[in-house]
Amino acid sequence: MAQVQRMSRLMIKTLRDDPADAETLNHKLLVRAGYVRRTAAGIWSWLPLGKKVLDNVSRVVREEMDAIGGQEVLLPALLPKEAYEASGRYEEYGDLLFRLKDRKGADYLLGPTHEEVFTQVVKDMCSSYKDLPVILYQIQTKYRDEARPRAGVLRGREFQMKDSYSFDTTDEGLAEAYQLHRAAYIRIFERLGLDHRIVSAVSGAMGGSASEEFLAPAPAGEDTFVDCPGCDYAANTEAVTFKATPADASGTGPVEELDTPDTPTIETLAAHLGVQASATLKNLLVKVDGEIVAVGVPGDREVDLGKLGEHLAPAVVELVTAEDFVGRPDLVRGYVGPQGLEKVRYIADPRIASGTAWITGANKEGTHAKNVVAGRDFEVDDYLDVVVVEAGDPCPNCGTGLQVDRAIEIGHIFQLGRKYADIFSLDVLGQQGKPVRVTMGSYGIGVSRAVAALAEQTADDKGLCWPREIAPADVHVVAAGKALQTELALDVSEKLGAAGLRVLVDDRPGVSPGVKFTDSELIGVPKILVAGRRSAEGVLELKDRRTGEREELTVDEAIARLT
Ligand code: ATP
Ligand code: MG
Ligand code: MG
Ligand code: MG
What we know:
The chain is α+β, with helices and mostly antiparallel strands. It is built from 13 helices and 31 strands.
């Protein structure tokens, strides 16, 4: 009977009003329904019902990761800084990183993502090609000191992530591990009941080449993506690439575009720019008249727009000058339209209101423009309102007008290649007896964020409305009346529990049926079974939380219907 949770013994307090600071649906509802509680900005406590939902998401993720041969491990979140210094990310992450010292004064950090540590573990454990391929994963607490932790558990400073890492000796092996993850992610998000799109993405601070994001369309999302109604093109607006055609440039210099192959690597880009490809990302973002006016720290990519604005209008902006941009094709780009280079666009973002923005506009394909001139090549007067792609812009593949939507990034998969293996000299002995450099992938799912995304996508005006697999219970039994109703409710709950169902039963004494009904809708278990008026005859009412459909059933019929 362990499956029956009596609300009279559950630590829950539902709220009629939205928390004062809540802007998004998931934040309001998860707090009001007693799933989570704010401990500090971006730091959340998971209460009994919330913990069940979080565990359900983890279970689905775990089952599908196991199914592709992933081996679960648990690495520390508290990490000495050395490995992150070696990769350059101790600096690059900037303020995003939680740094701390131990009693001896040694530097530590709280892990934001674990490429470095996993690389070291595999270096310790695997010495031969026979030890590979391997896929390792963990479901673990991550720490990022986000600039604006908002939207409840959607963007925490402490949050749960499933991160996995693949290790292979060949590029084909990596491609296979990537495809395995991609397929597993599709199954995971389908099982979770999350409507999602797979879009091309930029690799950002991870480095590496190919990368795709799993986006859950929702107005509360902080990402913008384009979707083509005419073909299968879909991309994060950060990664939209338009075909480059030579511009008819006049001004201080010819506008140049890179003529790159379809999926150029960092090396191709570097070769074109005539610089060394560097594994360590640099900070320079935009130079105006030779002076650096905006510096973005890779990893958060936020720049001070005020500072940029002072310089932008009349100046010559050298967008791509040197190695600073190598490895960061996502930073900024010229918008290359049918007439050649038309303008440089910046992504408008809610952050703009507070003075910072993503100055990106990317370009995973590496189509960069050189010697872009403000005023000639892009509009400068109104740049705060400009978005990187607008609805109706032509699809780079087929020319159909693009759709633009908001979404929540719920997963991100990367082919890292040999970036971290190079940093830590991760080799195994190959078939020919010679050392072979290992190639890696890294793959993340926001486990706690998925709870928020699900709430955003499935809630209605009455409250949360979970898909069954994720819900904190299969059925919510409501005792709507006095002793007789409570007795029937508890009896049917025991039977449902014995039949293997997870039951939440509202047996709270002294709580009116009206309050119990409202709470049951707020809590969002998919089926609600009410012991009410006709309890004496052994008749219950079964309600579907989503459709509101009701039917009267005997106890046996109800049990048969629900099991
Ligand atoms: P975002 O663009 O939203 O900041 P990210 O691109 O920085 O996310 P990744 O480094 O790709 O995140 O991490 C993998 C996954 O972890 C993301 O796809 C997302 O689902 C989740 N995630 C990242 N940051 C947070 C956060 N602050 N709170 C909750 N989940 C997060
Ligand atoms: Mg981030
Ligand atoms: Mg992102
Ligand atoms: Mg990401």
